[in-house]
Amino acid sequence: MTSSLSHMKFTFIGAGSMAEAIIRGLITKGGVHGENIFVINRSNRARLEELRERYGIRSSVNELEKDDAIRTGHIVVLAFKPKDALEGLSKIKHLIRPEQLLVSVIAGLTIDTMQTLLDAADYSIVRTMPNTSSTIGLGVTGMSFSPNVTPAGRQLAVQMFESAGIVSTVEEPLLDTITGVSGSGPAYIYYMMEAMIQGGVQGGLEPEEARRLVVQTVLGAASMVQATGEDPADLRRKVTSPNGTTQAALETLDRHGFPEAVAKAVLRAAERAGELGAAISASVTSQTK
Ligand SMILES: NC(=O)C1=CN([C@@H]2O[C@H](COP(=O)(O)OP(=O)(O)OC[C@H]3O[C@@H](n4cnc5c(N)ncnc54)[C@H](O)[C@@H]3O)[C@@H](O)[C@H]2O)C=CC1
Ligand SMILES: O=C(O)[C@@H]1CCC=N1
């Protein structure tokens, strides 16, 4: 499976945390050699140097070499922020070819808008929504394809992100929901962890000890759901003794609207992904008028 990935040349445009998470997966699990990964960043040479030292990737600040890497990469990964999409795609449209696989991790940016920005509908575009847990191989990536991505292209894209965790292939509109669930999701869990640590410290624990207990509690809870296959609701009930401590805690969470707040947060993130996409689409429309 990994042999085909290992024969590919990758060009990353944007050298942020998401690019690094994917690169690490490709190298540690995907069998890809750092020599086959070229990374471009708009600024910040130190960041490129850091990635080069860490993963043995290639990079350059020379414009001709960067253009050549975009032209010759089998898989070109768009890993910049939504606000940079208009400029970023306009700059590469004369360099890329329909045979290349274009993989975007940009939140909200639709396949349709990418095709408009590239002035062609025949590019093979993979729109993805990964998350930062890809850094340690425990990522979740939502994925959709433009109609002309070949079965081989689809397989490569799935392999690419499976080297960093699990992949869920969906119809494109659902990618915004996946953004709300798993793209932004790690932040909700970290927020919960921060609050649990704070509670422990308020109750007298040393911060380091509170952190250690919370990390293991979250790890254990997620692993229990995975290992037993039971519903989170059933596992929750097993912790909750009638009139016990957990019931008292959950009642407090309910009084503060916890379940509704979390579900609303997921949907608001999904809605925000749509807004980010719409803003790019609107700026494209106003530019082409
Ligand atoms: N951070 C996260 O948890 C996730 C982020 N994403 C998406 O990943 C994308 C990147 O996010 P991060 O890595 O967090 O951002 P980041 O800000 O850490 O990195 C983006 C990098 O791209 C560079 N850049 C911008 N325009 C460029 C251009 N035209 N050419 C070359 N380099 C350019 C910037 O200088 C910056 O170093 C975003 O679109 C975001 O929506 C997707 C899933 C999860
Ligand atoms: O906050 C964001 O916009 C990005 C997309 C999903 C996670 N981080």
From TrEMBL:
GO molecular function, one term: pyrroline-5-carboxylate reductase activity
Subcellular location field: Cytoplasm
The UniProt record lists the keyword Oxidoreductase: yes
Catalyzed chemical reaction(s): L-proline + NADP(+) = (S)-1-pyrroline-5-carboxylate + NADPH + 2 H(+); L-proline + NAD(+) = (S)-1-pyrroline-5-carboxylate + NADH + 2 H(+)
Biological or metabolic pathway of the protein: Amino-acid biosynthesis; L-proline biosynthesis; L-proline from L-glutamate 5-semialdehyde: step 1/1
First-listed, main subcellular location of the protein, grouped into a coarse class: cytoplasm
Keywords: Amino-acid biosynthesis, Cytoplasm, NADP, Oxidoreductase, Proline biosynthesis
Top-level class of the enzyme under EC nomenclature: oxidoreductase
GO cellular component, one term: cytoplasm
UniProt-listed GO biological process terms: L-proline biosynthetic process
EC code(s) of this entry: 1.5.1.2
Family note: Belongs to the pyrroline-5-carboxylate reductase family.
Function in brief: Catalyzes the reduction of 1-pyrroline-5-carboxylate (PCA) to L-proline.
Name of this protein: Pyrroline-5-carboxylate reductase
